[in-house]
Amino acid sequence: MSDNWWREAVIYQVYPRSFADANGDGMGDLAGIRSRIPYLSALGVDAIWLSPFYASPQKDAGYDVADYRAIDPRFGTLDDFDAMLEAAHEAGIRLIVDLVPNHSSSEHEWFKAALAAGPGSAERDRYHFRDVDPAKPETPPNNWQSVFGGPAWTRTPDGKQWYLHLFDSSQPDLNWDNPEVHAEFQSILRFWLDRGVDGFRIDVAHGMVKAEGLPDTGGDGTIEMIGTTRSPFFDQDGVHDIYRTWRPVIEEYDGDRIFVAEAWTDSAERRALYLRPDELHQAFNFDLVLAPFKAVDFRKAIDAEIANNAGVGAPCTWVLSNHDVQRHVTRYGDGPIGLARAKAATQLLLALPGVVYVYQGEELGLNEVLDLPDEVREDPTFFRTNGEQIGRDGCRVPIPWKTEGPSLGFGDAAGWLPQPEGWSEKSVEAEDGVAGSTLEFYRQAIALRKAHKASGLTWLDEPSADTLAFDNGAVVCVVNFGDEPVSLDGFDGEVLLASADLAEGRLPAGSAVWFAK
Ligand code: NOJ
Description:
Elements: E1 10-14, H1 30-35, H2 37-43, E2 47-50, E3 54-55, E4 67-71, H3 78-90, E5 94-99, H4 109-117, E6 129-131, E7 153-155, E8 161-164, H5 179-195, E9 199-202, H6 239-251, E10 258-261, H7 268-272, E11 282-283, H8 287-290, H9 295-312, E12 317-318, H10 328-331, H11 335-351, E13 355-359, H12 380-384, H13 428-431, H14 438-451, E14 458-459, E15 467-471, E16 475-480, E17 486-487, E18 495-498, E19 506-507, E20 511-516
Parallel strand pairs: 1-2, 1-13, 2-5, 5-9, 9-10, 10-11, 12-13
Antiparallel strand pairs: 3-4, 6-8, 7-8, 14-15, 15-16, 16-20, 17-19, 18-20
Bound molecules: 1-deoxynojirimycin (NOJ).
Residues 60, 63, 100, 167, 203-204, 262, 323-324 line the site of 1-deoxynojirimycin.
C-alpha cells in the first residue's frame, strides 16, 4: 500500500566522503554514516539520499563507477552497507541511493574490455566510439565540450578511435542504443532493490540519450552542467522511453520506492515530462539554486513548479544546495547576512507543498570554503580548466561534529579536505541544544512542518515589493527578501517560528516568519 511519503518528505543528502569518518583514514565511510543515524533522526528527516559509495577510482568523487554492485573499500563493505541500511530503517529513515547510468568509470570491466577488443567490436558498442579521421587526427568527431572543460572526446591509447565523455575522460558515456546497457541497468536496479533500498537518485537523468548522428551543438559546444541549455546530448525526448521501462521494475517492489531525477532542463514544462505517471516520481527543481535571493525570482520559480507538476500529478521538489553548487549561505552574501537569508529561504521552502532536500551541513549554517589550497583540490573541473574554475570542493568539506580535534570530530585524523577557521563554532557540538543556533532552527522548523502540513499555496497581499506572503493551508509564511525591516501589520496569529527576532512587530531584512492559522 502506498503511503505517499515521498510527496511531502524532508530528504537529507549525505555525501559519504565528507559526512563522518569512522576508521580514521580521513575519508567518510558507511560505518560513520551509521553512527550518525540518531543525529538524523533527531533532525527529523524522513529519508537520506546517499551520493555514490560504489567501487570507483574516485576521479569524480565516486560519480565514476567501476563496479555498480560493490562498495568502494574506502567506504566499507556490503555488510557495512546492510548494517547502515538496517539502522536507518530501524530509525524510520528511508534510503535513496545514487545511480549513475550516463557513464561508467574507465576502470569498469566493460570499458577495459572495449579497449582490449578494438574497433567494431560488440564491446565497443556499449560506449560511443568513433574512428579518428587520418586526414584530421586532431579533430574530434563533433564539437561537444566536456561539462568539466575541454573536449568531450579522448583518443584511445592506440590513437585509432575517439570515445565520448560528457564529463571527465575517466567517465566514458554508455551507449543507451545498446540493449545490453538496458539489461545491465535493470539488473543493477534489482540488485539494490533486493537489498532493500527505498529508491534511486538518477545522475544526469537528462543525458543518457544522444541525438541521432551526434550532431554539433550550436555555438562553441560548451554546455554547463549547472545550466539549462538544451543540446543534442541533454534532455532528448528518447530518454523518457528508458524511464518507462524502469517504472514497472520499481513498482514490482513493495514499500513505495521512488526515483528522483537530476534533470537540468530549460523550463519547468520540460522538467515535468520526467514526472509523468509512468516515469519518475520526483525531479529536483534547480530553479531556486539558480535564482538570486529576490522575491520576484522565488515567486516565479515557485509558481512554475507548482503549475507544471500539478499537471502531471507529481510533488514539487525544492532544493537550495547540494554537492555541485556553492552553499546557499555564501550565494546569498556569506557572513551574517548570508546566513540570515539562507535560514529565511529554508524556512520558506519548508512551508511549501512538496518535498524539501537538505544538503549535509546546511543545518549547521556552513558556508562555502572558497580558499582551499590548490594542492588539496580533487574536482576534475579544476584540473580540466587549468584552475580557471575552482570547482566544487568548497561545498564538500568534511562536517564539523565537535569543537576540537584534528578534523573537528569528522574522524580521528585530518579530513581529506581541511576545515576553515570558524567551523568549530558551527559544529554540531557547539550548536546542539543552543537556542537560536542554526541547528536548533532546522530541528524546530522540520518538526513544525510535520505538525502543520501544507495542503496548497495561496499568495497573500505582501507587505512590500521585496516580500512574499502565502497561506499553505496550515500556516501563513511571510519572507522579507529586502534590506529593510517590514511591518507585519495585518498578519496575526501565534508566531510558530521566526528566523530572526521580530522587533516591534517588524520582520527584519532577510528573515521569515510562520503564523499559525
Ligand atoms: C552530477 C553529479 O551530481 C556530479 O557531482 C557529477 O560530477 C556529474 N553528475 C557527473 O556524474
